[in-house]
Design goal:
single chain; alpha+beta; three-stranded antiparallel beta sheet
């Protein structure tokens, strides 16, 4: 019987990556063993145990800091901008370009709100993990194992695949050729058409136990350079049940540090594996020495009159023993006279601990707690990360943020939740690290420029288009409140009404002035008759 094609490809690629997978398992065993457990592990199996928790606490610390810097709450981590050919085209009117930018800013809010609301189930009490919870899991995989694969599902939620559940093949430039994911699914999740392809009946499956319905699903996502499309195939029980093509893949992998001509990334723990392993082993030695030093063992001379039960007598009891100069000479305590060696071990461990704490940012100032995270806090965390992990933002932006937003916008357009724009008119820019505050920085520069222009006099300020200035400040603030800022039509209507009111007032003043002059010349009687006729 011929083996299934996708499963065969998975087994071949899985056999070629065992060395890197075992090294990733070692990194996980020294930090968080459940991130990548040993081969064949089940819920009832025992996980590896460590003697030091510093590396695990450091990973948790980095996860939180990276999550705050890359996906800050209440602040967008991406920006939609007009493409260069549109933004710098002298033939494009400034009003048209500003209106297009305002439209893109509104699309940013739609995309961001879709991500934030992806954890809410409709008409059910089931709730999946939210966007940032999934991103934290992905960052944890990235730091420890060095590689992670994510998927944007049709309901806009995120899936994170464990390192041993997928294989990846890249070319020498690091471009992905294909991914193959292996997972277990309930066959009832398949459509009747898909069940018919694997010769299964929905009614029979519904009456069976859930453990008997679980089967392995293989998903292959490969790049076709001829059609420039991603080909997605799914295989169950040796038969292909799904074949589709996508312009933008819903799967995207992120390497922490990708060596040249490699298929998988290497993580931060592997880069510091020597210190992590040494700290764990030295902590074990210190614990052994401490356990030995804490033991209270009595040594009784062979010719001693002291018996073992005498040592167990309560305080104040009298026993028989050889006494010289007030000291019992035939009973002693077991001691470990290796204090100098113990100090060497302690000093070595302390130096390694300090180095690891610096790498994992555990020596820096802790983030203040509170419901509201300020821009200054994000900036401080980002600055620390820029120094300690300066090269992490580029691969995360290229492999996680930009592909996620591109696929999300593509999916929103397919679901008719986002207006369709030409592909070559919009570009996605990831805002990471210090760039997470780019809007606040741009806003500050703009306000400083306006202040400088105001000092040059009213002639300089008259050259500023106040309408575009207010629209730009609104976009940079990330605020969208319809009706908050008056439109050009509303301003023109108000100006027309003000002009009409001024004209009426002027006419009334002229009439009153004319009537006053005639009152002086003609007298009150004739003037009153004329007023009655006018009335």
């Amino acid at each position: 019987m011929e083996r299934p094609a996708i499963r065969t490809d998975f087994d071949a690629a899985d056999a070629d990556r065992q060395e890197t997978l075992n090294r990733a398992r070692l990194c996980s065993a020294l930090t968080k063993p459940w991130i990548l457990p040993p081969e064949g592990w089940t819920e009832n199996s025992k996980l590896p145990e460590t003697f030091s928790s510093l590396a695990s606490r450091g990973c948790t610390n980095l996860e939180g800091r990276l999550l705050l810097a890359l996906f800050p709450p209440g602040m967008p981590f991406f920006k939609l901008q007009p493409a260069a050919k549109l933004a710098f085209d002298p033939t494009v009117e400034p009003e048209v370009l500003e209106e297009f930018k305002s439209h893109l800013a509104l699309q940013e809010l739609i995309v961001q709100s879709k991500l934030d609301s992806s954890d809410k189930g409709r008409f059910t009490n089931a709730r999946t993990a939210g966007f940032r919870s999934r991103m934290r899991t992905a960052i944890s995989q990235l730091i420890i194992t060095g590689d992670v694969l994510l998927q944007l599902l049709p309901d806009y939620s995120i899936r994170v695949f464990r390192r041993d559940n997928y294989v990846t093949k890249r070319d020498d430039s690091g471009n992905v050729l294909f991914h193959i994911i292996k997972e277990k699914i309930d066959l009832l999740n398949l459509t009747p058409e898909q069940l018919a392809k694997i010769d299964k009946n929905q009614e029979e499956l519904n009456s069976s136990d859930v453990t008997k319905r679980m089967e392995e699903l293989y998903t292959k996502v490969s790049w076709n350079p001829l059609t420039t499309l991603w080909v997605i195939e799914q295989e169950v029980l040796g038969k292909v049940i799904v074949t589709s093509e996508e312009e933008i893949s819903p799967f995207f992998s992120v390497p922490f540090e990708l060596p040249p001509a490699s298929d998988y990334g290497r993580g931060l723990i592997e880069a510091n594996l020597g210190d992590v392993r040494s700290l764990n082993e030295l902590t074990e030695r210190i614990l052994d020495f401490s356990a030995l030093a804490s033991k209270h063992l009595f040594a009784v001379d062979y010719n001693s009159q002291v018996r073992a039960q005498d040592l167990a007598q309560p305080t104040g009891s009298v026993i028989q023993a050889r006494v010289q100069s007030g000291q019992v000479t035939d009973v002693g305590m077991l001691r470990t006279d290796k204090l100098s060696d113990f100090n060497v071990v302690m000093n070595t461990r302390e130096n390694i601990r300090r180095d690891l704490a610096t790498v994992m940012l555990m020596e820096g100032e802790t983030t203040p707690r509170g419901d509201r995270v300020t821009a200054y806090q994000v900036q401080r965390v980002a600055q620390e990360l820029e120094g300690a992990l300066g090269g992490v933002y580029a691969p995360i932006a290229d492999g996680m943020q930009v592909p996620l937003i591109e696929r999300l916008m593509y999916q929103l357009k397919k679901d008719q939740l986002l207006p369709t724009l030409p592909d070559d008119t919009v570009q996605v820019e990831a805002i990471t690290g210090i760039m997470a505050l780019s809007r606040e920085s741009d806003q500050g520069k703009l306000l400083n420029l306006i202040q400088t222009m105001a000092q040059l006099g009213p002639e300089t300020m008259s050259r500023v288009n106040m309408g575009q200035l207010i629209d730009l400040l609104m976009r940079q603030s990330g605020i969208y409140e319809p009706g908050l800022v008056k439109s050009e039509e509303e301003i023109q209507q108000e100006q027309q009404q003000a002009q009409q009111a001024a004209q009426q007032q002027q006419m009334q003043q002229q009439m009153m002035q004319s009537m006053g002059q005639r009152y002086v010349k003609e007298g009150p009687e004739e003037l009153s008759e004329e007023q009655e006729m006018q009335q």
